[in-house]
Design brief:
- With 462 residues, the protein is an alpha+beta fold.
- The strands form 3 sheets. The protein has a 6-stranded antiparallel β-barrel.
- β18 and β19 form a beta hairpin.
- The longest helix is centred in the C-terminal third of the chain and has 27 residues.
- The radius of gyration is 37 Å and the shape is elongated.
- The N terminus is likely disordered.
Length: 462
Amino acid sequence: MKTLDCALHNRAAIYQPGVTGKQVAFLSPPFTWPLRIPKLITVAAVNEATIPIARENDPFENASSESSYYGILNILYYLKAKYTRIHFRYSGYVYIAHCEQIDQHEVLLTAHGFQETQERRAVLQFEAYNRYYMSQVLVLRTNENGIYIQFPAQLLFLQRRRHIRLRFDDLFMRFTILYSPIGHTRLDEKNLESRFPYVMQEIAREDVSLQTMYRMLVSEIQAISGDFEIVFFSARDEEQLSLAEKIVKEQGRSFYIEDTMRVLSYTSPHSHVNLTNLSGIFEERAAKEGDAVALRFVEEIRKADARNFIVSYLMSPLSLFSEIKGYVRVETNQFDKKYINAAQAVDLHRLMELFSYAMSKARIRSSHFDPSSVETRVVNISLSGLLLEFSDEAIFRYLMQHRRIKMLIPVMGDDLELFGEIVRFTQRGGFYYLGVLFFKSKPGDMIRLEKFIHENMQFQFL
């Protein structure tokens, strides 16, 4: 051995010009011969070694485990008795296997088309007792009977679900939103019902009529003043908007001037949170340029309003999916001989909120509840809820505030009528996903859904 080491060292020096035999020991790194032959890796050593698994998006990384011998044995006998499909991942392929025989230290599986390679490690994945199991196993041998694997030392499983989910690629549904309380408090909701009883009855309907809502809106506006107009921002550029219009668009509050002859109507903050004026801009300019400059700025705006014979005016925002799209402007002039008071301004603001809600509800119904609509796909469904997918970001964000929906799902030649509440929001790959929890259904529809899931789950691996 020593002679062989010297020969190899001298041979290494031949390929390095200028290196003598005495300098061989100082070569970096030195060429050495292993002094001991490594031991062969036994089956026991392979079994003790940890099998590396890519942890990227691994759902079993923090999963619960079953390590009891008799617990695992009970699960394996369940697989054998029910002839449950097992996903056998081996050497880059996934085989459908079944459990045929269970011994104390090994398990016999059968898999159609299985081909053995030098790989000795495999992964089992299966569903049993409404749990999704995974185990890393060692392949002992194969023959004409099947695949012999070592008895699993541990079974990892995901959280147990109350109901089994059924996945789909081509099941589409329809939905529309249900009325949810708009008032900030129960008292506020009661005030809306007493102030606008017919409006509240109309928006509570599933098929709200915008024509009816518009007639009621106009009737309420004309009770304040007959001089009004509805303006949409889409028809104008940002540079063309007036200062008041920019405030309405940015703040989402009603711009209200009670008396154009009084500067305080422009500079004094309103007591109600839904009303605004130039008080914020006045204070900002006063802090930067002084009170006199800020007051001259407001005075110019006041004079421009007065020259147009305006006595008081109100600009209430109009929105679609919580995004300001325009406003309704109501004003009184010197010929009307009356003012718009603060109570009327607050009432009109709340009425425009109700009308905006009706517009959003009608828009969702026309696009996602139409019988020919294929905008919404059912990703998976169970007896307790479903996961739906669509691509409209505006509706996705609007549903975060209005979570109660009615759904129609075509099942077994008819539509299931289900009612649910959205409890989860996710976004992935340009699509938006909503997790819905059922709370009510049409009589008999839950029984039909249970039958539908039972008939289709046999061919799906959950």
